[in-house]
Structure formats: C-alpha cells, structure tokens
Automatic annotation (TrEMBL):
Protein name per its UniProtKB record: Aspartate carbamoyltransferase
Annotated Aspartate/ornithine carbamoyltransferase Asp/Orn-binding domain residues: 147-286
Organism placement in taxonomy: Bacteria, Pseudomonadati, Campylobacterota, Epsilonproteobacteria, Campylobacterales
Quaternary structure and partners: Heterododecamer (2C3:3R2) of six catalytic PyrB chains organized as two trimers (C3), and six regulatory PyrI chains organized as three dimers (R2).
SUPFAM superfamilies tied to this protein: Aspartate/ornithine carbamoyltransferase (SSF53671)
Domain Aspartate/ornithine carbamoyltransferase carbamoyl-P binding: residue ranges: 2-140
Keyword Heme: no
Species of provenance: Hydrogenimonas cancrithermarum
Enzyme class, UniProt record, top EC level: transferase
Biochemical pathway: Pyrimidine metabolism; UMP biosynthesis via de novo pathway; (S)-dihydroorotate from bicarbonate: step 2/3
Entry keyword set: Pyrimidine biosynthesis, Transferase
Function noted in UniProt: Catalyzes the condensation of carbamoyl phosphate and aspartate to form carbamoyl aspartate and inorganic phosphate, the committed step in the de novo pyrimidine nucleotide biosynthesis pathway.
HAMAP family (alphabetical): Asp_carb_tr
C-alpha cells in the first residue's frame, strides 16, 4: 500500500514523473483516469486552499469526492479516530485525504485502512503536497535548473509543517537553505540561520515567506503582529530590484508576511503556486490510487 505521509515516501525519480504529469495537466484537460473512484476528505482543521485544491484535482480526474464534516461527525460524539478510520474504510474508498492538528495522525490512520492516505497537513510535522508544489513552482521558474539555488525560508519556521517538508524536499534536490526568523521561531537545526532578513537578500535566489502560526502558540510571542512585520515582512522597499522569486504557502497575512506591493509584483508567484497545486495533486492522486489498484 502506498501513501503520501511525507515527501520521503517518494523517490526523486517518482517526483520527476509526478512533475511531468503535472506539466501535462497544466497544458491540456486530463483524461478521467479516476472515473468511478471514491475519495474522502477528512479535515479536522480548517482549510480552504488545500481542501479545495485536492477536491478540484480529484474531480478533474473524474473521481467522486465525499467530504466528512468533522463538526457533525461521530468523533464529536466520542468515537475514536481509529473507529472513524475503520468505518470509512468499510465504505471502500480509494483514498482518504487527512488534515489533523496532531502530528502523526495520518500515519496512524494509514495503519487501519486499505486505501491510500494523503497527508494534507499534520500538526507542525509535514505538508508533503505543499512542498511538492513549491518545488514544482521553483523548477518551473528556473527552467529546471535548480541545483545550487539558494532559498531563504522566513518566518515562524518552528511551528510550520510547510517549512519542515520543504527543508527535507528541497535539500534532496540540491538547494541551499537559510532559515530567517526571530530566535523563538527557529527550530534546532544544522542549517544556516539568521535573525536579520537584510543579511541574506543579496545572496538568495528565492524567498519563501511563512504565515505566523498564532494558533500554535501557547502564549503571544509579539505584542502585535505589526512588531513582527517591522522586521520580517517582505516589502518592495526591502526587496528593491533584486531578481528574487517570492513564494508563500497561503493564506497570506497582508502587510505582515508580504506587503501589498510585493503581492502585486510579478516576482511573487503565490497564485501560480495555487494553480500548480491542483496539477501536482492531480499527479499524486493518479499515481497512488492507480498504483494501489
């Protein structure tokens, strides 16, 4: 049984194949390869972008999609997560897409089902499809020539599953990574780090800004997000005329993560990431569901 719990579940060769499929899906309508397949979305955390992206990807491939409304599900009546998984499994889905606030939940569910599990984000652990679409967007921008490119990941890295997945994946493809954040947002790491954004802007090819994960903070870190923005917001004034690719996984806190001017700048690829996300998730759904028979 194949799952996508972390990006390590795919080899480099498999990722290259995924990207070839994604490129094809961006150019022409895809064949209905998942006709009569059933996909369940199981989101225990709020999501607009990731959930809709997966659902659109599945429907473009011809699959039927059922969303379990967790707020009205039996988990609210005391049913365990594993009983929920067993009951869903008994309905015969071909894949379950899971988001959960607790790290490791998609893996635990994968042990109780007979279908493919896609991790749509678990705690601060991993968000593999986001990292894949980010890498795809970077390759697209640089024409595939990415080995040795330098990326700064900026923001609440310690609490970011997007950062964790990107660090693992981009390193495998030869990118150099510097983490930029205030000390309390930096994880323990062997990667280069700095607390000063201006120190790296002349060195990097890519900046990935992150959303400040206020919902994951046990207590307020900054007196206000404006204080954070004064040091780490990606502004047009800070970037200047540098040839830097700007990414963000969304949702963007405008004028906190990135200012209005940079969001409108052609160097900012946030909307391209969203578009690419559908194509990359289509490729991943196709691969794992068809591989599992």
């Amino acid at each position: 049984m194949r799952h996508l719990i972390t990006t390590d579940d795919l080899t480099i060769e498999e990722i290259e194949t995924l990207f070839k499929d994604a490129e094809a899906y961006l150019k022409a309508p895809p064949p209905k390869l998942l006709q009569n397949r059933l996909i369940i979305t199981l989101f225990f955390e709020n999501s607009t972008r990731t959930r809709s992206s997966f659902e659109i990807a599945a429907k473009k491939l011809g699959a039927d999609v059922v969303h379990l409304d967790v707020a009205k599900s039996s988990t609210k009546k005391g049913e365990t997560l594993y009983d929920t998984a067993a009951n869903l499994n008994a309905m015969g889905p071909d894949a379950i897409i899971v988001r959960h606030a607790q790290s490791g939940t998609p893996y635990q569910i994968s042990r109780h089902v007979d279908c493919a599990i896609f991790n749509a984000g678990d705690g601060a652990h991993a968000h593999p499809s986001q990292a894949l679409l980010d890498l795809f967007t970077i390759r697209q921008h640089f024409g595939g020539d990415i080995e040795g490119k330098h990326i700064a990941i900026v923001g609440d890295i310690k609490n970011s599953r997007v950062a964790n997945s990107n660090i693992r994946l981009l390193s495998r493809f030869g990118l150099h990574i510097t983490l930029v954040a205030p000390p309390h947002f930096l994880p323990k790491t062997d990667l280069p780090t700095t607390t000063k954004l201006e120190e790296v802007l002349d060195e990097v090819d890519i900046v990935m800004s992150l959303r400040t994960q206020t919902e994951r903070h046990a207590h307020p870190i900054y007196a206000s997000l404006k204080d954070y923005a004064s040091d780490y917001c990606i502004t047009k004034e800070r970037i200047g005329e540098r040839d830097i690719l700007l990414l963000h996984p969304g949702p963007v806190h405008r004028n906190i993560d990135i200012d209005d001017a940079m969001l409108a700048d052609p160097r900012c690829k946030v909307l391209e990431q969203v578009r690419n996300g559908v194509a990359v998730r289509m490729a991943a759904l196709k691969k794992l569901i068809l591989a599992n028979g």
